[in-house]
Write a structure and sequence with these properties.
single chain, about 525 residues, mainly alpha
Length: about 525
């Protein structure tokens, strides 16, 4: 029986809730390891004896492997059984985490992060499909809500825990913490989940796997490294862009070809308009989720003057409130409100939050920005789970695994593109605003000189020499201009993200307007 094909729910009894815990733990670990590592990269670079640019590959390697293996997860689960595949993946993930923690060179670290990323690929899509199989219709929304709570809150609180662990212990512990949690999850899945008689998916689609690896691998590399290599100013980026586009195009054509009897990814699920609409909305949701997690800590440190640990702590409250909002949205769907309607409300809240965050100034205080983050997270909580729920309503039971894989891939690719887009816009718009601000200041003539003289006088009165006072005054004005330029650039990124959310709105109307008990998988 394929993943997603329901059996007799009564065979699990109350153990289904224990299984939900195992699935949720596994999914949370996978998401956590994408973002928890960011605050500790500088420290890690020093310990491993490499540059800041080189240490970036610790994140890139994980995401590259994760994105390439995500579309393959349904095929693996149909071939080996969902429970076996998920449990073995958790064990490999834990082993790779341990090896990452004891790595002594950058090469070792990158190698083990690749293994970790590949093993983590099924821990979201296949655990979601497993929940759809185990829980009856009336409990689907609650079970999916608890599961989604873990994978959506994790990226928001990960920076804080990453900084806290590094400050109080040492960076290897961000990997070692996976061991007990992962072993608990693996034990639960191994002992509770009952793999039924599964069918062998047929011959391995090696051509499809090869095209997928080349296409998505190249595109993911371009997204991760494009900004640091000046995008299309680099011949490597140009070549990999073409390779990614051609490889992905050939992959899609081959998977849909009638000559391919055993496609590794069932792209035919996209024939369902509701699912296609959810895929697009999930992609844009990924842009908003991950770009926000990426950009705010930088803004908090560069403009608000927070430390790395404090900026992570600053995001903790919005992350926890996001969990509360997730529970509320689940209860609303349980009461009979169509998931699509909840998603539309969430999308509108996200648009409003981007407008609010997009009007910050260097004088904005912490409370102003935290309010914007809270509203954003409430909107995402009301958007992400309902999109997943509404997206796979109407799929055939045998298509649930493929649908979950594609939705997971779209969200992950959206996150990668969101981070790349945010980083590029931030760099370019900061330069743009700085140039125009300096031009306006200099063209101000006597006003600029009067302000410079006033600041110089203030330093001179405190005992500095006249030359040192002038240099300090120029540096202070330059710093103020840089902070203003950076703030305007951050505003531009938020407004652009809001426009993307607005573009997603029409696609929500493609999703089925089914009520709560038309649960996931029906």
């Amino acid at each position: 029986m394929a993943p997603g094909t329901r059996g007799d729910h009564s065979e699990y009894g109350n153990a289904r809730w224990l299984l939900l815990l195992g699935f949720a733990l596994a999914a949370a670990l996978e998401v956590l390891d994408i973002s928890i590592i960011n605050p500790v990269l500088p420290t890690m670079a020093g310990n491993l004896g490499c540059t800041v640019e080189e240490i970036g590959w610790v994140s890139t390697a994980y995401i590259l492997a994760n994105v390439v293996f995500l579309p393959l997860t349904d095929w693996f689960s149909r071939t080996f059984g969902l429970g076996r595949y998920v449990a073995v993946s958790i064990i490999v993930f834990v082993a790779a985490s341990t090896l990452c923690g004891i790595s002594h060179t950058l090469t070792e670290m990158i190698l083990f992060r690749i293994v970790q990323g590949a093993a983590g690929a099924p821990l979201i899509s296949m655990t979601q499909a497993g929940i759809a199989e185990v829980f009856p219709k009336k409990e689907q929304n609650m079970a999916q809500g608890v599961w989604a709570l873990c994978i959506i809150v994790a990226p928001s609180i990960a920076p804080y825990f990453g900084g806290w662990i590094t400050d109080n212990y040492s960076w290897p512990w961000i990997f070692f913490i996976n061991v007990p949690l992962g072993m608990i999850a693996a034990f639960i899945v191994f002992t509770v989940y009952k793999d039924r008689a599964h069918y062998i998916a047929g011959k391995a689609d090696w051509l499809g796997i090869g095209l997928l690896t080349v296409g998505l691998g190249s595109i993911q590399y371009v997204l991760e490294e494009g900004n640091s290599k000046d995008w299309f100013g680099s011949q490597l980026i140009v070549r990999l862009t073409w390779l990614g586009l051609i490889g992905t195009g050939l992959f899609v054509a081959w998977e849909l070809s009638p000559r391919n009897k055993w496609p590794v990814v069932n792209l035919k699920v996209l024939r369902h308009w509701g699912f296609s609409g959810a895929t697009i909305v999930s992609f844009i949701s990924g842009v908003g989720l991950y770009s926000g997690v990426f950009i705010f800590p930088i803004f908090a440190q560069a403009v608000l003057g927070l430390t790395a640990t404090k900026s992570g702590y600053f995001m903790l409250l919005p992350g926890l409130l996001m969990g509360v909002a997730m529970i509320v949205s689940t209860l609303v769907i349980e009461k009979g409100v169509p998931a699509r309607d909840v998603a539309i409300v969430g999308l509108l809240i996200c648009i409003g939050s981007m407008w609010l965050l997009g009007h910050s100034t260097p004088m904005s205080n912490e409370s102003d920005n935290q309010l914007g983050l809270i509203i954003r997270n409430v909107g995402l909580a009301a958007l992400l789970l309902p999109v997943m729920t509404a997206g796979i309503i109407g799929l055939d039971r045998s298509e649930i695994g493929a649908g979950a894989s594609i939705l997971g891939l779209s969200r992950q690719l959206g996150g990668s593109i969101g981070i790349a887009l945010a980083a590029t816009q931030l760099t370019r718009m900061t330069q743009y605003h700085r140039y125009h601000l300096m031009d306006r200041i200099v063209s101000g003539g006597s006003m600029y000189q009067d302000r410079l003289d006033l600041i110089t006088g203030a330093f001179y009165v405190k005992g500095a020499s006249i030359d040192a006072s002038r240099a300090a005054a120029s540096k202070l004005v330059d710093l103020q201009v840089s902070r203003q330029a950076y703030t305007l650039a951050v505003n531009n990124v938020y407004i652009l993200t809001g426009m993307l959310f607005l573009m997603a709105l029409p696609f929500t109307f493609l999703m089925k307007r089914a009520k709560s008990h038309a649960a996931v998988g029906h």
